[in-house]
Amino acid sequence: MTAQQPLIQVKNLDLFFGLFRALKDVSVDFKSGELVGLVGDNGAGKTTLIRVLCGIHAPTKGEVYFDGKRVTEFHPKLAIDQGIETIQQSVGLCDNLSIARNFYLGREPVNRILGIPFLDFRKMRDISTRVIREFGLRENVSPDDEVERLSGGERQSVKIGRAVEFKNRVVIMDEPTNHLSVREREHVNELALQLRSQGLLVIYITHDIFQVHKLADRIVIMENGEKIADASTDSMTAEELEEVIRQGGRVVEKREKK
Ligand SMILES: Nc1ncnc2c1ncn2[C@@H]1O[C@H](COP(=O)(O)OP(=O)(O)OP(=O)(O)O)[C@@H](O)[C@H]1O
């Protein structure tokens, strides 16, 4: 990894829901071409942090920089325009629409005939066919099939394919392998590595410590709204990582006191 400028810089972020402080002075950097595991117990603040990055929540205090520029407005559309895509198990696809339509959701290509705009179905079908083959969907799956017909892993593949095709710069994967079979899980994880090797920043949220330790370059651990550790996976075994999470910040504090 070169010493390049971080793609995303989070500085001293605080976020309150009413009186509840969900993020406490969180600072963290993310670089392009990195796969970063974001872990921590339930309620640690992982989802809240990534919701700030994808423009769903505005921080109460602190700063976020994207590509060196301060983010002054937090809105999901702005985050998408900057190339930040979130892949969650249960959201992101409309079950009753075809794979092709889902692939282009919100970015539908248009043909103009006599100045009247028409959806370019041929383009949607052609591009999504290529991508669904490339991303490992079954041979008998057609771009005209409703996504309802797809397995969990195939649904994730459509979302990941979409992120690559639209040249996203950041893919946030929030528990992307929940409820998937072992084979599908491996496939989704291979796709995550593929995104990283294409130079994207991948932020991977999970409770599966052993899985993320194998995949990630770096692990950021959160606890009660705070970042309690940020370490490369080479510097910590999966067992040590699990212990840090189990003990909250206490193991880290002990290590720092030595
Ligand atoms: N919209 C909201 N309004 C009020 N409190 C919220 C809201 N969203 C999250 N919280 C609270 O903020 C804290 C952090 O939640 P968050 O979802 O970020 O945790 P998490 O680390 O992603 O947990 P999990 O692994 O269970 O998804 C929790 O105590 C949660 O109840």
Automatic annotation (TrEMBL):
Keyword Transport (UniProt): yes
Any coiled-coil regions, as ranges: none
Lyase listed as a keyword: no
Every ABC transporter domain range: 8-249
Molecular function in Gene Ontology: ATP binding; ATP hydrolysis activity
Protein name: ABC-type sugar transport system, ATPase component
UniProt KW keywords: ATP-binding, Nucleotide-binding, Sugar transport, Transport
